[in-house]
Write a structure and sequence with these properties.
Blueprint lengths: L13 E6 L3 H5 L2 H10 L4 E7 L14 E5 L8 H17 L4 E4 L4 H10 L3 E5 L15 E3 L8 H10 L18 H13 L8 E4 L11 H13 L4 E3 L5 H11 L7 E3 L6 H9 L3 E5 L2 H9 L3 E4 L5 H4 L7 E4 L20 H4 L3 H11 L1
Parallel strand pairs: 1-2, 1-4, 2-3, 4-5, 5-6, 7-8, 7-10, 8-9, 10-11, 11-12
Helix pairs in contact: 3-4, 6-9, 7-8, 7-13, 9-10
Length: about 350
């Protein structure tokens, strides 16, 4: 029985997947690569990503190679950027891909699909946004849903559009942690006199700080836990805003039960820290998605962003805390654009502590 007019994909031998988005978004595409390899075991499958996002898929057994877009190109003069992008597009065109899947709504991925000349070009329906005529860049359009769905499912819709329907057990995230990353983390923990599987890992920040619980709340929580002699390890990104946020949390706190590794680990090493922890406490950030891939015990604090869209994925050991405000998720950068969200700022330290004690 036929349920749709799906293309004959028997000739597909070379595939390119485009995901020009941030870290967590890229990790949430990992099931799509696994499914492509299962459906096309002899095909070459490549990825086109921002340079900083490569660690999220590096080591994935389905991926042959990466095309990289360095974000610094966006800061170049127009003609210099145009020249570099043109060379990259020419290189992609010469690969002679049979299928290109663009998982982003922007124009850059659509241009890649068009320039590739691939017989099958799958992309999001632009619905009138972006450059003129973009809809015609694709041979198959992915329709938008009116109701929210997890980003993993939205990515997999690209395969459903051409007749590839994943089973529930085929939708797992994959995050590779190399042995050297594990060894470095073990050394860092040893030097800090912290035993594996005997610490709570706290990742208090996100690239977008409006998604973070107040620094004062994290500070109160940490003071309470170290007083009870609970070993804590902090991790975070290397951006100045994240460093400043964590510094405000830790100001004046000195305890042998607290180790600050923020800004000192790579993404792969963060994965090792999560894997070796008793529990991860985080906000809506990349660490949450890595924890889902590892099925690590997790408590995630959500505010203005949607846990339906970005929450834990297939992780029975994860729990979400949020305030049941009627206005959330608003996906805004704080109430009225003020960078501060009531739905996060009214989440009490006591409630988070109770959840930690329950999970441990």
């Amino acid at each position: 029985m036929s349920y749709g007019d799906y293309p004959d994909l028997v000739s597909v031998k070379k595939i390119l997947v485009v995901k020009l988005r941030h870290l967590g978004d890229v990790l949430l595409t990992s099931p799509l690569f696994s499914l492509l390899k299962k459906r096309f075991p002899n095909a070459t499958i490549d990825a086109y990503l921002y340079e900083e996002s490569i660690p999220m898929l590096e080591g994935h057994p389905a991926i042959s190679s990466f095309h990289v877009y360095p974000k610094k190109w966006k800061r170049l003069y127009f003609f210099k950027r145009l020249c570099l992008e043109g060379k990259l597009l020419l290189h992609i065109h010469r690969q002679k891909y049979d299928m290109v899947i663009n998982l982003t709504e922007g124009d850059r991925g659509a241009i890649v699909a068009k320039v590739s000349k691939a017989p099958f070009r799958i992309g999001m329906d632009p619905q009138g946004s972006g450059m003129r005529g973009k809809k015609k860049f694709y041979t198959h359009l992915i329709k938008h849903y009116g109701s929210p769905r997890h980003m993993v499912e939205k990515n997999l819709d690209a395969l459903r559009r051409v007749g590839i329907f994943p089973k529930a057990e085929e939708r797992s995230l994959f995050f590779h942690i190399p042995q050297e990353a594990k060894e470095k983390v073990e050394r860092l923990l040893r030097e800090a006199s912290v035993a594996k599987n005997n610490y709570i890992l706290i990742h208090p920040t996100s690239r977008w700080l409006y998604k973070s619980w107040p620094s004062s709340s994290f500070r109160t929580l940490i003071l309470h836990l170290v007083e009870k002699k609970v070993h804590l390890v902090l991790c975070g990104g290397k951006e100045d805003a994240e460093k400043k946020f964590i510094a405000s949390i830790l100001e004046g706190i000195a305890s042998p039960f607290l180790v600050d590794l923020s800004g000192k680990t790579t993404l792969k090493e963060m994965g090792a820290l999560i894997e070796m922890s008793r529990l991860l406490l985080c906000v809506d950030s990349v660490s949450l998605h890595i924890a889902s891939a590892l099925r690590a015990k997790t408590i995630a604090l959500f505010g203005p962003t949607s846990e339906i869209l970005w929450g834990p994925w297939q992780n029975p050991n994860a729990h979400i805390l949020y305030q049941p405000y009627s206005c959330r998720p608003c996906c805004q950068d704080g109430c009225a654009g003020a960078k501060m969200s009531d739905c996060l700022f009214t989440l009490s330290v006591e409630r988070v502590l109770q959840e930690i004690e329950k999970r441990l």
